[in-house]
Every structure is written in structure tokens, then in C-alpha cells.
Amino acid sequence: MRRTWWPLGPASVVVPAGAIVVAVLAMTWRMLSWPYPLWVQTSAQFHQQFTWAGMIAASWACWYATVMHAKNRIWFRPNAPRLGAPAVVLHLTTLVGWFVGTYLVALLPLTLATLGGIGAPDPLAMLSGVLAMVAATALGYALGAVVPSVVMVPLVAIGCYALLVGGSAAAEELAAVAPVFDLEPELGQRESLPLLVFRIALFVIVTVAAVVLAGRAATRNQSWRAAVDAAACLALPAALVTVALIRPPAVFVADGQPAASCTEKRGIRYCVHVENRARLGELVRSIDTVIARFGTKPENIDQVWDQSLTFRPIDVERARGVELAWLEPDGTIESAVAVMAAGVYSCKGGTKPAGLITLDIDNYLTTGVPAGTLEGMSVSEVQRWLARFQDQLHSCTLTPNQLPRAETR
After folding, report:
1. pLDDT tens digits for 272-306?
2. Residue 180 near residue 167 (C-beta atoms within 8 A)
3. Tens of pLDDT along 237-252?
4. Which residues of the chain, if any, have pLDDT below 50?
5. pLDDT at residue 353, rounded to an integer
6. Rounded CA gap, 156 and 286, in Å?
7. What is d(CA 32, CA 114) in angstroms, rounded to the nearest whole number?
8. What local confidence, expressed as pLDDT, does residue 301 receive?
9. What HEC string does the chain produce?
10. What is the pTM of this model?
């Protein structure tokens, strides 16, 4: 009984441990080459990667327990000494060591790739993910010990999946109890301290309750006590979950008002989060290409802000002509500057003359090629038309006679 592997072979933990490594690496591989990794996102991966890893750990721990606690084992005969809590602790030490250990190994490449990245690690967010894996393993094992039937294995897997789906569908309400968040924090945000403290406490209590429940199941030979033991051990976790559902803590909070790094070109002011200052020139170049195609400064765009500056309440709505840009960790920059300069949102219905041309202007500003209603026009002709009619374009008041090439139609 003191041998960790007995009566199961090494494959009983090596195979699921390998599956955890493969699942985590497959989900994080694309992040390893990101030129601007964020520590806040890497820290979040310690719980976000629970999606497959947690399901594998909980289901396999349940199967392990059903084998170890099967009623045909010699130590479960009516007059035989019971397996006892020490054996349960030995089993869980092995399972947690392998499953959580390989989970951390699989996250190591991402952690190393983030060294020197933007921001700082969030140890509590990382710890909450590790404890979620521990709790899933312990709970899966406990359920397999209480009901030592292979039928429990798919039920545990379904339960994990339901928890993940619920966390995705009710992001704010279930974030405190769901291992995986629907959204990940971005630069300028962090996971709130009350949320992290609650999650850490919940996962620790679930782990302790699962160990106690499995130990009692391995000690008693009266099957009718299983339901009573389960109710007693899971009462406190259930109470905590109820409290979190009634008064869920905030998921993300904004960092203190961040400093901004700004510059100006063609009459447009560009500002990025101070941590993104190395990307300010890249932002200007990406937006200035659109402005150059427009030919002059669009009257409805005066500033372009890094979205990371807007998580604090800074009255973006009143700031005249402000557009946002998303500076993604993978090096891409996304914005709606071309859309706004083209007046697409001014004519959402698309039935007025202006609405018929805004999408073609958006396409031209994005690609540099006049097409559709602009086809046959040179770039200089498009720019002259935009300079003359941009007020009508942005107010959706263009008349048919003001459309490009109207005299030839």
C-alpha cells in the first residue's frame, strides 16, 4: 500500500499528465511569439487554461478513485481493515503532484516568453489557477471514492463542462466560482483583490472538504452514510458559493490613472498608455496611412487614444473627436478610424445616398484602392471630393447630385 503506483501502473497518471501538457501547450503556443506580451494576461492563463486541464484532472482523478475504492478490493471486504485517510492522502499527493506539476510545466514556456514583457506578474491570480487545479483533482477523487463506479467519470466531466459554460454565459455573476473567466484582463486592468481572495479561499475549502469526504468514504463501510458525509463536507463550500452568487465581487478593476505618452501629427494627437510608449510610433504610422489617403484631417477625428487609457472613468464621451485604438500583444493595431472618417456610423441604415458610398470610402481608406462607387476615380480625385463634401458625409446629408461622378450617372 505504500507504493505510489500500486495497484495501478505508471500510465494511470503519466497519460493524463501528458494530455494536460499537450492541451495547455496547444492553447498557449500562439502566445509564445507575441512581441508585446502582457503579464496581466500571462498571469490569467494560470486559471484560463483550466478549460481542458481541469476537466482531464478531475475526470481522471475520479476514475483513479473508482479503481482504488472498488467494492471488490480486498480492503473493502466486510471484515477487512479500511483503506483510511492516510491512503487517500497518498493517492491525492500523487495525483496533485503529477497533474498540477505538469500544468505548471506546460505554462513555463509562456512565463519565460513574458519575461521583460509589459507590466508585472499577478501572483494571486496565478495562485488561484493552481488551487483551482488542486480543488478539481481532489473533488474528482472524492466523488469517485463516494460512488466507486465508472459512471461517475463522465458525470464529473459533464459537471466541469457545465461549470465552464455557466462561467462563460454569466461572466460577472459566476466569475467568483467558475475557474475560467469569460474575458481576460487587458493592460490597464487587473483582477480585483476581493475576487482573488474569495477564489483562493473557496478552492482551499473545496480541497479540504474533498479530502475529508474521501477519507470518510475510505474509512466507513456503511454505504448509507455517503450522502450524509457529502452533505456535511460540502455545506461550507456551498454556503460560500451562495454568498458569491448573491453578491458577486467585481471581476476587474482599473489600475490607478496611468500616465500617457503622446505626440501629434497632421493635427491629430496620439496618446498611448505609458507602458505602450515603445509602440507610439507604430500607432501613428498605422493611423497616418488612413489620414494620408483621406487627403486632409477628417473633421470628426482630433485624437486617437490607446484603449488602455480608458479603463478609468475619464469622460471619453465628451472628449471631442476621440477614437480608440487597440494595441494587441501580438503586434496588431486595430481601430475604427477608417470607419469613422468614412462616416459609416453616420448612415447606419445605408439607404440614403451617403449610406451607399460610406462603405466604399471605408474600403478605399483601408486598402488605398478606389472601388465600387469610387471606381474609375484617381486617388487625388477621391481626396478632392472628400475635402469638399466631408461635412455632408459625416452628417449623412449628401444628395444624389453630390455623389462622386454624379454628372456622368
Report:
1. 999 999 999 999 999 999 999 999 999 989 999 99
2. yes
3. 888 888 888 888 889 9
4. 1-7, 74-75, 80, 317-318, 407-409
5. 64
6. 49
7. 8
8. 92
9. CCCCCCCCCCHHHHHHHHHHHHHHHHHHHHHHHCCCCEHHHHHHHHHHCHHHHHHHHHHHHHHHHHHHCCCCCHHHCCCCCCCHHHHHHHHHHHHHHHHHHHHHHHHHHHHHHHCCCECCCCHHHHHHHHHHHHHHHHHHHHHHHHCCCCCHHHHHHHHHHHHHHHHHHCHHHHCCCCCCCCCCCCCCEEECHHHHHHHHHHHHHHHHHHHHHHHHHHHCCCCCHHHHHHHHHHHHHHHHHHHHHHCCCCCEEECCCCCEEEEEECCEEEEEEHHHHHHHHHHHHHHHHHHHHHCCCCCCCCEEEEHHHCCCCCCCCCCCCEEEEEECCCCCEEECHHHHHHCHHHHCCCCCHHHHHHHHHHHHHHHCCCCHHHCCCCHHHHHHHHHHHHHHHHHCCCCHHHCCCHHHC
10. 0.86
User: By CB neighbour count within 10 A (0-12 exposed, 13-18 middle, 19+ buried), where does 94 fall?
Assistant: middle
How far the first Cα of the chain sits from its last, in Å, is 90
Residue in this structure with the C-alpha cell 477621391, named with its chain if needed: 382
Give the model's pLDDT for residue 2.
45
Asked if the bond preceding 7 is cis, omega within 30° of 0, the reply is yes
